[in-house]
């Protein structure tokens, strides 16, 4: 009798202990799950969209939050398997890291694919190639530090081999690769915090051996990166911009030892993101996939938890199979914009496009008008089309050059495939250095 009285008491005691551990994580409450529906609808559209570069992002996100949409998951896994079999050599290091994280998330059967195709060994090679490129090209990796962080994270979570000393040498917070121009990249810093936290944990657990100074340095780096992330917090709670906020939240969830409770109002950030969702801000599968885990209180470090990630959210996506809404330009009316290409000189044209057009439509129309001046190339990336060259002048990671998109002189925070243009706008692609 006495025991059965004590049991609830013990339970209560445990319960009161758990929240103090988790209180740094704020997440959407169950009654608000409905507000995440637009994200799931967008991710569902992945199967209709051309290209597969976002499959790993979407699959990882679904796995982490424990959504049971088998139909979509199966299709994404097929796409990933095709990539792994047929074109792994063309996959960048970070894409491969994402594939490993997605396949290996939460002890699911597809984990075997990682080992069947020796993906960890292949990632070690691709990571090595990034380092070699930095050594040969003035500290510039083949891709970028966002991807190098993903590499370290996947190698760390899946017991790959990496040198802790190299991580310490390359990930100093002052490294130029955390910056684009003078702007700190919150996405990059956040991914680095996740990677460094994983490395720190495996050093502390004794899984990986190293000398004390490496562990100490890693802690110093995390602290400094967290400070930089928090200094990009806006008045409305967003961190960096709309698209970096989810990843910044993940970084702050795992690093709460490094800042004060008052430094960050998580609930405010969460509410602003929910408002942005309702305004349709996360309209591409990758944007939706990258923000969702944080909103459900999950981080990429949960990927190798021993349990399968089942959650209350499990079934709330079952009825999401809604038809894709094709944006038909508003009653076929036209708008006109000023479009220019700037290298040293500026070349401009007035371009008329249907209302509702995106930046890419303007570029295509201009190219038709004058192929020599406005001719361009692009490639499909996980966030949509990325402009690789204009007038035959190619962006280069070794030189840190790219084609920057601007409107009215201000850099855009969306790519050419998703930015919807307005009548009278001054659009520009500008040859720039980052
Ligand atoms: N992902 C990556 O490798 C990309 C990493 C990333 C930090 C990324 C943002 C963040 C993320 N979550 O994925 C990134 N961008 C990088 C590294 C880069 C550089 C790419 C070259 C390189 N070294 O790898 C570079 C050149 C500095 C860059 N991004 C340019 C641009 C512009 C693209 C213009 C073009 N030529 O097409 C653009 C449009 C900015 C501009 N005004 O010109 C741009 N990026 C944007 C807007 C973005 C955001 C996309 C948001 C959206 N809704 O479309 C971004 C999320 C992202 C993708 N870039 Co970059 C950042 C943000 O706004 N929060 C890993 C891979 C496996 O998927």
Automatic annotation (TrEMBL):
<feature type="binding site">
    <location>
        <begin position="386"/>
        <end position="387"/>
    </location>
    <ligand>
        <name>cyanocob(III)alamin</name>
    </ligand>
</feature>
<feature type="signal peptide">
    <location>
        <begin position="1"/>
        <end position="23"/>
    </location>
</feature>
<dbReference type="InterPro" id="IPR051588">
    <property type="entry name" value="Cobalamin_Transport"/>
</dbReference>
<dbReference type="Pfam" id="PF01122">
    <property type="entry name" value="Cobalamin_bind"/>
</dbReference>
<keyword id="KW-0406">Ion transport</keyword>
<keyword id="KW-0732">Signal</keyword>
<dbReference type="GO" id="GO:0031419">
    <property type="term" value="F:cobalamin binding"/>
</dbReference>
<keyword id="KW-0170">Cobalt</keyword>
<feature type="disulfide bond">
    <location>
        <begin position="106"/>
        <end position="309"/>
    </location>
</feature>
<dbReference type="Pfam" id="PF14478">
    <property type="entry name" value="DUF4430"/>
</dbReference>
<dbReference type="InterPro" id="IPR002157">
    <property type="entry name" value="Cbl-bd_prot"/>
</dbReference>
<feature type="binding site">
    <location>
        <begin position="143"/>
        <end position="147"/>
    </location>
    <ligand>
        <name>cyanocob(III)alamin</name>
    </ligand>
</feature>
<feature type="binding site">
    <location>
        <begin position="403"/>
        <end position="405"/>
    </location>
    <ligand>
        <name>cyanocob(III)alamin</name>
    </ligand>
</feature>
<feature type="domain" description="Transcobalamin-like C-terminal">
    <location>
        <begin position="356"/>
        <end position="432"/>
    </location>
</feature>
<feature type="binding site">
    <location>
        <position position="187"/>
    </location>
    <ligand>
        <name>cyanocob(III)alamin</name>
    </ligand>
</feature>
<dbReference type="GO" id="GO:0015889">
    <property type="term" value="P:cobalamin transport"/>
</dbReference>
<keyword id="KW-1015">Disulfide bond</keyword>
<dbReference type="InterPro" id="IPR027954">
    <property type="entry name" value="Transcobalamin-like_C"/>
</dbReference>
<feature type="binding site">
    <location>
        <position position="412"/>
    </location>
    <ligand>
        <name>cyanocob(III)alamin</name>
    </ligand>
</feature>
<feature type="binding site">
    <location>
        <position position="241"/>
    </location>
    <ligand>
        <name>cyanocob(III)alamin</name>
    </ligand>
</feature>
<dbReference type="GO" id="GO:0005615">
    <property type="term" value="C:extracellular space"/>
</dbReference>
<keyword id="KW-0964">Secreted</keyword>
<keyword id="KW-0813">Transport</keyword>
<keyword id="KW-0171">Cobalt transport</keyword>
<feature type="binding site">
    <location>
        <position position="434"/>
    </location>
    <ligand>
        <name>cyanocob(III)alamin</name>
    </ligand>
</feature>
<feature type="disulfide bond">
    <location>
        <begin position="156"/>
        <end position="198"/>
    </location>
</feature>
<dbReference type="GO" id="GO:0006824">
    <property type="term" value="P:cobalt ion transport"/>
</dbReference>
<protein>
    <submittedName>
        <fullName>Transcobalamin 1</fullName>
    </submittedName>
</protein>
<feature type="binding site">
    <location>
        <position position="290"/>
    </location>
    <ligand>
        <name>cyanocob(III)alamin</name>
    </ligand>
</feature>
<feature type="disulfide bond">
    <location>
        <begin position="26"/>
        <end position="266"/>
    </location>
</feature>
<comment type="similarity">
    <text>Belongs to the eukaryotic cobalamin transport proteins family.</text>
</comment>
């Amino acid at each position: 009798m006495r025991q059965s009285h004590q049991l609830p008491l013990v339970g209560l005691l445990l319960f009161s202990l758990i929240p103090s551990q988790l209180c740094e994580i704020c997440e959407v409450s169950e009654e608000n799950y409905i507000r995440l529906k637009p994200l799931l609808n967008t991710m569902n559209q992945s199967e209709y969209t051309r290209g597969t570069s976002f499959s790993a992002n979407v699959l990882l996100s679904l796995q982490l939050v424990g959504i049971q949409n088998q139909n979509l998951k199966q299709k994404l896994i097929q796409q990933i398997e095709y990539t792994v079999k047929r074109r792994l050599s063309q996959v960048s290091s970070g894409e491969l890291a994402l594939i490993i994280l997605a396949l290996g998330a939460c002890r699911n059967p597809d984990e075997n694919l990682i080992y069947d195709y020796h993906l960890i060994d292949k990632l070690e090679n691709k990571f090595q190639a990034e380092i070699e490129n930095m050594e040969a090209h003035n500290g510039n990796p083949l891709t970028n530090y966002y991807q190098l962080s993903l590499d370290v994270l996947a190698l760390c979570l899946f017991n790959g081999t990496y040198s802790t000393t190299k991580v310490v040498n390359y990930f100093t917070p002052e490294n130029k690769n955390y910056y684009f121009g003078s702007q700190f990249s919150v996405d990059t810093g956040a991914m680095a915090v996740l990677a460094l936290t994983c490395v720190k944990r495996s050093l502390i657990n004794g899984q990986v051996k190293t000398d004390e100074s490496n562990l100490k340095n890693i802690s110093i780096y995390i602290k400094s990166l967290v400070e930089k992330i928090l200094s990009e917090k806006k008045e409305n709670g967003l961190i960096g911009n709309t698209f970096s906020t989810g990843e910044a939240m993940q970084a702050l969830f795992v690093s709460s030892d490094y800042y004060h409770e008052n430094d960050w109002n998580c609930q405010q950030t969460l509410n602003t993101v929910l408002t942005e969702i309702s305004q349709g801000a996360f309209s591409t599968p990758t944007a939706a996939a990258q923000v969702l885990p944080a909103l459900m209180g999950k981080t990429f470090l949960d990927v190798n938890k021993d349990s399968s990630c089942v959650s209350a959210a499990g079934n709330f996506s079952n009825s999401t199979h809604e038809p894709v809404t094709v944006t038909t330009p508003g009653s076929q009316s036209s708008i006109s914009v000023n479009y220019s290409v700037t290298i040293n000189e500026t070349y401009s044209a007035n371009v008329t496009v249907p209302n509702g057009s995106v930046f890419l439509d303007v570029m295509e129309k201009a190219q038709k008008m004058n192929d020599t001046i406005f001719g361009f190339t692009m490639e499909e990336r996980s966030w949509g089309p990325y402009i690789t060259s204009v007038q035959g002048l190619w962006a280069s990671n070794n030189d840190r050059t790219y084609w920057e998109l601007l409107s009215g002189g201000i850099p855009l925070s969306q790519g050419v495939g998703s930015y919807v243009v307005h009548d009278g706008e001054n659009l520009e692609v500008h040859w720039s250095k980052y």
